[in-house]
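Let's practice the habit of predicting before peeking. Look at the sequence and jot down your guess about where helices and strands might fall. Then scroll down.
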Amino acid sequence: MIDAIKLFVLKIFGGNSYFATFFISMLPLIELKGAIPFGMSQEFFSGGALSPLSAWISASTGAFVPAIFLVFLFPRLVSWLKKRKTLRKLSSRLESSYKAKAGKISENGKRMKDYLLLILFVAVPLPLTGVYTGSIVASVMGFSYFSSLVCILVGNFVCGGIVVLLCTILKGYELYILIGFGLLIFLVVGVRLIRKIFKRQKKTTF
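Done guessing? Here is the structure:
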């Protein structure tokens, strides 16, 4: 499995750990939480593995790129979906889903506290938090484009720092950190899907 990934990285990125980390950090769910241990792993890059500082900068920068587009495009996408009769249900589900998350972050409408809570939300190195979800939540909460990007940028770099610190403390175990994070993604996503299935079954029975 590792050899197959090595060959893939070599084919796509020419074995360049900096660019591999940068582009992998742009992927949803994975983001920098998976990209940093990947880039610092000796198993994948041997002598070409990134230093903690290089991994932090490349992954944090790459993970931030989607936010530039998501914060701008998400409100426009929802309004476009609302104009299509066949897609109105999808738009309302999408909007209500992220409004629920926004409601958890924004408790009292105080903007400064909301900014800090959004930063914290993006900074937590767990699945379903981070740049992608944070960008959409910021849009739903009505933050300005600039304020959203600043909060996401700060939270993203803090998250990167936490992951780099973990990989530095557990040096030589980056592959296990990566595997552990992958299993955590499957667990969280799986639990959410099961909960949705049970909710639908309850609605149909009553």
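How did you do? The first helix runs from residue 2 to 13.
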